[in-house]
Design brief:
This protein has 107 residues and is mainly alpha-helical. The protein has helices at 2-79, 90-106. It is rod-shaped and about 135 Å long.
């Protein structure tokens, strides 16, 4: 009986060691998965922030190209001796139109 008890206790010790090692390995795998998920979340967040900044830069460049186009059209009008409406301040345009209407009444 002494031999059977010793064999059983050795088997229990062996199985508990195997179980302990598996638990440690599972915990290490869990920690690695947590690190990978955190890295993935940070990467996705950084990519979305970068995408947002790129979209804002694209929009700013689009506005800049439209303004440059408007300036080129205005310069062409000025070179032709015409006054483009886009260059004139709204208050000045109002005064010009009022002067023209006053002039037309006097004719």
């Amino acid at each position: 009986m002494d031999h059977t008890v010793r064999v059983n206790s050795d088997a229990i010790l062996n199985l508990s060691t195997i179980l302990k090692n598996k638990m440690i390995e599972s915990h290490d795998n869990y920690q690695q998965i947590i690190r990978n998920i955190a890295w993935l979340n940070m990467t996705i967040y950084n990519h979305s922030v970068l995408f947002l900044v790129i979209r804002q830069i694209e929009f700013a460049l689009l506005q800049l190209t439209q303004q440059v186009d408007e300036m080129l059209v205005a310069v062409q009008h000025i070179l032709l001796g015409k006054l483009p409406i886009t260059v004139v301040n709204p208050k000045i345009l109002h005064n010009i139109l009022r002067n023209i209407s006053l002039f037309a009444r006097n004719l």
